[in-house]
TrEMBL record:
This is FAD-binding oxidoreductase. The keyword Flavoprotein applies. Keywords: FAD, Flavoprotein. The keyword GTP-binding does not apply. SUPFAM superfamilies: FAD-binding/transporter-associated domain-like, FAD-linked oxidases, C-terminal domain. Residues 96-278 form the FAD-binding PCMH-type domain. The lineage of its organism: Bacteria, Bacillati, Actinomycetota, Actinomycetes, Kitasatosporales. PROSITE patterns: FAD_PCMH (PS51387). InterPro entries: Alkyl-DHAP_Synthase, FAD-bd_oxidored_4_C, FAD-bd_PCMH, FAD-bd_PCMH-like_sf, FAD-bd_PCMH_sub2, FAD-linked_Oxase-like_C, Oxid_FAD_bind_N. Signal peptide: none annotated.
Length: 531
């Protein structure tokens, strides 16, 4: 059954910061947040304007056959120059967004992508695939000067659910489909992809696949990897189209080659993805813990049970206070269960019992089980946090996050080391104390994914370099504890040094060979994953 095109939102997006332009904190709210953090600016930096940037003419001109797909509009080019990481935001605030693409292309179908890559390859033009632009690792910008021009390849016109197999619970979907449009088109079939990252409103299916994105769900099928059934990928060497199969043992998986390849090996144009029925039964609760170590033990016990909660988020005391969940020094565990075919109250009761056996106190938010106020407060803060980060950036503060994953035996010491060493480094270079909070976003029987928030005074005019210094400290801690450089945000350019240390050298050799074979002219997202 064929799908239909969802109506795109007309609400204007911010070119320099997260999300919608009208959702950012105003000057008064920025100043109020800055007053809570020592060492910030006396007043917020002005919201940057595209017209204040020095944007020259494009260094390339498309042929007449492709001109209808390509624009050199300065505002469009500026909006495609960077992702949405803290260092991207502060560079925009300081009027230093980096290399602005010469052109932005909006292909309407796969043949357009083929034609654009053919042209770019013949002209030494770098091509940076672009979905929703929500990258927080430098994955959608060009760095360097090895190419004659830069083309941002925006796939968001390819936004349709093309086919739904309700019997097999799968759908064929174009890669440029953003989260809301994807779910809107699946809703009439009673199905859902069940992939809800924090960037859900603004990111696309192709972006999720290219970055091996993790969704909201804390256990079970949360990475996009497990939802991919087959792919179509345009490479400079030809189109790769894998078979749609429930499973296969036929050698290395062709799909796994492109999942997580971040646009360096090819451009994902569509995918068959596995779906599930929309949930009809839900239940949630929260529990408070006096000690964070006891809370870690509780989460491990739940993860190693057969309960598989949809939400199992552990907030340390600082994160609980920052989220408005609880401010008495307690850690808070947020639990949630859902199902399409059966009530989940019994599963929640069992998880709560496990948590209580490790010292958890139910009702951390003061509400009942089904409508716990802590759960609602956390969900609201989760969606609002990127906007508040941008507000703090306008006050000259460092406000950024990074995430990782490690085995349970390494998790406690890893969290302690990140808190102490990153905090000490921030205090040393700024002269002010820093806050380093932690939450667990995803949990597994054999380990967990800690997610850290860093709040510190900035270095006026040099905020991006300051964050780079702090990130280098964090990366060294992760490497020392054999924790991954990223659990679900991709490598991009910012995590590249850590990725180079993490991957085995024979694999790096093979990846470079694949890059050379599929992209012999080196035009696809140069500098990401391999040189």
């Amino acid at each position: 059954m064929a799908g239909t095109t969802a109506q795109p939102s007309s609400r204007p997006r911010s070119w320099w910061g997260w999300g919608y332009a009208d959702a950012h904190p105003d000057d008064a709210e920025c100043a109020a947040m800055g007053a809570l953090l020592p060492g910030t600016l006396p007043r917020p930096l002005p919201v940057p304007r595209v017209r204040d940037l020095r944007i020259g003419g494009p260094a390339a001109e498309p042929p007449a056959s492709l001109a209808h797909l390509v624009t050199a509009d300065p505002a469009v080019r500026a909006a495609h120059a960077m992702g949405k990481a803290y260092r991207d935001v502060v560079r925009a605030l300081r009027g230093r967004p980096g290399r602005i693409p010469d052109l932005v292309a909006h292909p309407a179908g796969e043949q357009d992508v083929v034609d654009l890559l053919d042209w770019a390859g013949s002209r030494r033009i770098a091509v940076v695939p672009y979905g929703g632009g929500s990258s927080v690792t430098g994955g959608v910008e060009y760095r360097g000067d090895a190419h004659d021009a830069v083309l941002s390849l925006d796939l968001t016109r390819m936004d349709r659910v093309l086919e739904v197999d309700a019997h097999g619970r799968a759908a064929r979907i174009q890669a440029g489909t953003p989260g809301p449009a994807l779910e809107q088109q699946l809703r009439p079939h009673g199905l859902t992809l069940r992939h809800f990252p924090q960037s859900f409103e603004f990111s696309t299916l192709g972006g999720w696949i290219a970055t091996r994105a993790g969704g909201h769900y804390a256990t079970g099928r949360t990475h996009i990897d497990d939802s991919v059934q087959s792919l179509r990928v345009v490479t400079p060497a030809g189109v790769s189209a894998s078979w749609r199969l429930p499973a296969s043992g036929a050698g290395p998986s062709p799909d796994r080659l492109f999942i997580g390849s971040e646009g360096t090996l090819g451009v994902i144009t569509e995918a068959w993805v596995r779906l599930v029925e929309r949930p009809r039964h839900k239940a949630s609760a929260s529990l408070a813990f006096t000690g964070f170590r006891a809370a870690l033990d509780a989460v491990r016990a739940i993860a190693q049970s057969d309960l598989r909660p949809a939400n199992c988020r552990l907030l340390d005391a600082g994160e609980a206070a920052l989220s408005g969940v609880r401010a008495d020094g307690s850690a808070v565990l947020v639990l949630g269960f859902e199902s399409a075919d059966a009530p989940v109250d019994g599963l929640l009761d069992r998880a709560v019992a496990l948590a209580r056996s490790h010292g958890g106190r139910p009702g951390a938010g003061g509400g009942g089980r089904a409508g716990d106020a802590a759960v609602a407060a956390w969900r609201s803060a989760f969606l609002r946090m990127p906007y508040l980060r941008d507000g703090l950036a306008r006050m000259g503060a460092v406000a950024e996050t990074f995430e990782t994953a490690a085995t349970w035996d390494a998790v406690p010491a890893l969290i302690d080391a990140v808190r102490s060493e990153v905090g000490a480094a921030a205090a040393k270079v700024t002269g002010y104390p820093a806050t380093v909070n932690c939450r667990l976003t995803h949990v597994y029987p054999d380990g967990a994914a800690p997610y850290f928030t860093v709040l510190a005074a900035g270095r006026p005019g040099d905020e991006a370099a300051l964050w780079d210094d702090l990130k280098a400290v964090a990366d060294e801690v992760l490497h020392r504890h054999r924790a991954t450089i990223t659990h679900h945000h991709a490598v991009g350019r910012d995590h590249r040094p850590g990725y180079d240390l993490q991957r085995p050298e024979p694999f790096a050799l093979a990846l470079r060979a694949v890059k050379s074979a599929l992209d012999p002219r080196g035009i696809l997202n140069p500098g990401v994953l391999v040189d």
